[in-house]
Design goal:
159 residues; mainly alpha
Length: 159
């Protein structure tokens, strides 16, 4: 893994992201990563809070367009996350918190997919009270996983 991480870090993308004096390199990549995270987690949180009973008059079907924003935010984060990793691969690849972050993101995405399937058109859950226990548990799990992923990401900057 160290050879591969060293190769990644020495690649044109790694060197450019890390060493370019251009505003379009590291500062922009980090900003886009933050914006993508805000879109992804923010849209998730809206659905999670609705499942927890906030805004009960807001119909669940009206939240369906948020899933497109989530996946757009995820795409931005995936691309910029790779760029940030490549810029410091030899350090990040050794951090256990990096792998914890990836695991939390994967679990959060699976939870998001389960929530979407449970509230899909025609499901009994969509027509039932959104505050029922399975939906509430999934919403709490989603919020905890995203909070953990964000915290792990921030910790990576300090380790």
């Amino acid at each position: 893994m160290t050879d591969f991480a060293r190769w990644l870090e020495g690649s044109a993308l790694g060197v450019w992201t890390r060493e370019s004096p251009s505003i379009w390199a590291y500062p922009t990549v980090l900003t886009l990563h933050t914006v993508g995270l805000g879109v992804l987690v923010g849209a998730n949180a809206v659905i999670d809070f609705r499942l927890l009973g906030l805004a009960p008059r807001l119909p669940m079907p009206s939240l369906d367009p948020l899933y497109r924003f989530m996946w757009a935010g995820f795409a931005i984060n995936a691309v910029t996350g790779v760029m940030l990793f490549v810029s410091d691969a030899t350090v990040k690849a050794k951090q256990p918190v990096f792998y914890i972050k990836l695991a939390l993101i994967a679990l959060a995405l699976v939870t998001t997919a389960v929530i979407r399937r449970r509230v899909a058109p025609g499901s009994a859950f969509r027509d039932a009270d959104a505050r029922q226990e399975p939906g509430r548990r999934l919403a709490v799990l989603s919020l905890l996983l995203w909070t953990g992923a964000i915290t792990a990401g921030r910790l990576m900057a300090y380790l």
